[in-house]
Amino acid sequence: MIPPHSPAKIATRALLPLGAILAVFVVFTLLAAAQTGVLHAQTPEPASQEGVFTEDQARKIDRMLMCPVCPAQTIDQSQVQIALQMRVIVRDMLADGKAQDDVLEFFVDRYGNDILAFPPKSGFNLVAWLLPAGGVAAALVAVFFIIRSMTRRGPVPAAARPVQDPGLISYLQLVDRHLDMTRGGPRPVDTSNQPGPGVELPGTGAPAPEES
Amino acid sequence: MADLGAISLWIALALAAYSTVGSVAGKLRLSPALVESAQSAMYAAGLALLVATFSLVTAFINRDFEIAYVAAHSDLAMPNNLTWVAFYAGNEGSLLYISTVLAIISAIAIWRAPEKLKDALPYTTAVLMLTLTFFLAVMTVMANPFDKLPFVPLDGEGINPLLTHLGMFFHPPALMAGLIGITVPFAFATGALLAGKTGDEWVDAGRVWAILSWALLAGGLLLGSWWAYTILGWGGFWFWDPVEIAAFMPWLVLTAFIHSIMVQKRRGMFRMWNIILINVALGLALYGMFMNRGGSVPSVHSFGASALGWVFLLFLAIGVAVPFAIFIWRYPLLKSARELDSMLSREAAFLVNNLLLLAIAFVSLWGTVYPLLSRLFADEEITVARPFYDQVNGPLMLGLIFLMGIGPLVPWRKASLSSLRKSLLPPAVVGLATVGILFSLGLHKDYALIAFGLSAVVTAGILLEWYRGTRSRHRGTGENYAIAFLHLIWANRPRYGGYIVHLSIVMLALGIVGTSFFSTKLDIVLSPGDSVAVGDYDVVFLGSVETLMSNRTEFTSTLEVYQGGKFLETLETTRAFYPSFNMASTRAAIRSTPVEDLFIVPSENLADGSVGFRILVNPLIWWMWVAGPVMLVGTVVALWPQKIRAPAPAPSRPRFAPGSRPSAA
After folding, report:
1. Which range of residues forms the domain containing residue B248?
2. Between chains, do B612 and A79 touch, taking CB under 8 Å as contact?
3. Residues of B in contact with A205 (CB under 8 A)
4. Which listed residue, A58, B82, B225, B529, has the most CB atoms within 10 A of its CB?
5. Ranges A161-165, B73-77, B655-659: which has the least confidence
6. What is the ipTM of this complex?
7. Do B232 and B359 have their domain in common?
8. Model-level pTM?
9. B331 reaches A (C-beta below 8 A)
10. Residue B420: what pLDDT?
C-alpha cells in the first residue's frame, strides 16, 4: 500500500508527471524554435551554398511574405501578377546565394514590416512572441500549484486497486450487482450527487445560506 | 410579405422582452403563474420568428425586390435552392437566422430540461430571452431584413458567386448556430448559479447542449475548409484568418469544457472551473459574432462591416462582465464535493488538457488583437498570419495530441505507476516504431515525425482499449467479437463516442501535417497539347472551352492524368467570371485518394487558348474530409441518451463497467 501522505511524498509524486509534461513541452518548443528560428532570430539560417536551394526553402519564404495588394494572402497563395514577380525575386535571390533573412529584409526595406506574415522578432514586436510563451509558462506553473493544493487538502482515500486479470471483471460486476441489491436500489450511493458544503438540501426549495 | 415579416419581428421582440422580465419577476415574487406565462411567451416568440423566417423565404422565392435585402442578395437568374444561402448572405438575414435558431433551441432546451433544474429554469429562460431580446432589438432598429426600397428594381444585384457552393449551404449556418448555441449551456450554468443551485444539477443539460454546439462548430469549420479548398483556388483550407479564428476559439474552449464537465459529472469536482470555462466560451462566441460584423481586423470574410460592430462590442463587454460578477458572487458556494486524489489521475490529465486548449485559444486571440496593439502603441502596421500561429500553436497542438494519447489510459482518481507502465508501454512502443520506420524510409522532417509518432500513440492506445474490452466481453458473455465490440461501445457511450472523436482528430492531424510539410506546388501556363510532370503524375492539357451564361462566362479546361505511363482519368476544372461582381470563381479538379490529392485549378485564361494552372499534390488531405463524418458518428454515440449511467467508482472500492478497464470505468 501507499505510505502516509507526507508533503514530501506528495511533492515527489507531483514533480514526476509534471516534470515529464514540462520536459515534453520544452522539447516541443525547442524543436519548433530550432526549425523555424525563433530563438535564433539573430543567427541567420545557413546560407545556401553557391546558390543551391530547394523548392521547399523557397516556398517557406513565399509563405512568410504577404501579397501587398490582396487582403490576407501570402505570395504563396496569391495568383496576382505582383505575387508572381515576388516569387521570382525570392528564387533569384536564393540562386544568388542569399539567405532567407536577406530575402525577407529585402522586402521589408521596400514595403515595411507588414509585408511579413508574422511580427518581426525584434524591438517592440518581440512582445507578440514573448507574451504567449510567458503566458503558457505561467499557466503551467499555475496548474501545477492548483493540482498540488487540490491534492493536499484532506485525507486521501485508499486507492482503487487495479485488477490484473480481465477475466475477473464479469465476476466483480456480479458482486457489484449483488451489493446494490442488498442496499435496496439499482444505483449505488453516488456521493457526487450528495450536497457538498453550503449547497441547498434537496427538497427544501429554499436558497442555501450565503456562507458555509 | 414584407409587412407580415416586419410585424412578426416586432411581436417577437415584445414577447422576448416580456419573457425576460416576467421570468425574473415571477421567480422573485414567487408567482408560478407569471413564470409560466413568461415561458409561454418564449415559445410564442419562437413561433413569431418562424413566421418572419417564412416571410423572408417567400419574399426570396417571389423575388420581391421591393425588399432591400432581397434585391441586394438575389436576382432573377438565381435558382430557387440558393434561397437558403441568400437568406443569410448579409447582415440582416444572418441576424434573423441567428435569432430564429436561438429562439427554437431555447424552447427545446427549456421544454426538455430535467426536473431537478426546475428551480433554476426561470433564470435560465431569462438569460436566453435577454440574449434574444438583444438580437431582435438590433435587427428591428438597425438592420431590418424587411426594410423596403422607395422603388421596385427590375432585377436584384444577385448572389455573391463565391457562395454558390454546396459547402455554403452548411458552413455559415452551422457556425452561426454553433456560436449562438453556446448561450444554452451558459444559460443553464448561470441560471443554476442565480438560483443558488451550485451543485451538479446543471451538468447533464449543460454537457449535452455544449456538445451540440461543439459539433456544429466543428462541422462548420470543416465544411468551411472544404469550401476554401475546392473554390478559392489556392489549394489550402485554413489560413488562420481572423474570422476562422473567431469560430475556432469558442470551439477550443468548448472542447476543454466537454472534458472537464465529465470530471464534475463523475466526481463532483471542478465546479468553479466549469463555470469559468462556459463563461469564457460565451465571451469568445460573442467576440466571434463581433468579428463577423464589422470587426476591427482585416479579413477575407469582412462581410457587413458597419456600425453594428460597436453595438456588438458593447454586448460583448456586458456578456463578459456580468457572468463573472455572478460567478464571484456565488463563489463561496462552489466548493468541490471531493479532493483530487493524485497527480497521476484522469482528473489531473484533464486539467492539463484544459490548459493546452486554453493556451491555443489565448494565442489565437492574441494574434487577432496584436495588430491593433501595434497600431496603437508602436504606430506600425503588423500582419499576424499563418507563420506566427504555426510556430506558436504548432507545439501546443502536438502537446495536445500527446495528452490525447495518454489521458484516456490514465484511470480516474489515482494510477499506480505499475499499472500505468502496463497500459502506456504498448502505445509508446508503437509510436516509437512508427517514427523509426518513417525515418528509415527517408522522412526526416522532425516536426512531422513527432506528429506521426504521436498520432500512432493515440491510435494504438484507442485500438488496444477496444481490443481488450471486446476480448473481455467475448470471454465473459460468449458473444462473437463483432457483437461484443458493438455492445462494448453501446454500454458506455460517452466514453467510446469520445474515442471515436479522438480518432477523427488523429485523421485531421494527418491531413494537416501531410499538406503542411509534404505538398508539392507548380504554377505553370500550358497550351493545348502540353504536358507537365508533377510529383509522379503526368498531366496533359487537352484544351479549354468557353461558355457564355446569363450571369457569367465559364471556361472549362480538360486534362488527362497519367501515372508511370498509365492513363488514370480525365479531369475537368472550371473558372467562371462574373462581370457584375468583377469576380472570378473556380472549381478545382481534384483526384482524391487516401494517399494524396492531385489538385488542379485554372488561375488565368489567356487569349491564345493557353491556361495558367496551379497544380498541387497534397498528401493525406483525404483524411481531413473523412474526419468530419467520423467525428459526427462519435458525437452521436456520445450524445445518445443513456438511461443507466456507468457509475463513478465509489470511494471505498472500485466498480466495473462492462468491458472497460477496471479502474478506468
Report:
1. 178-367
2. yes
3. 119
4. B225
5. B655-659
6. 0.76
7. yes
8. 0.82
9. no
10. 82
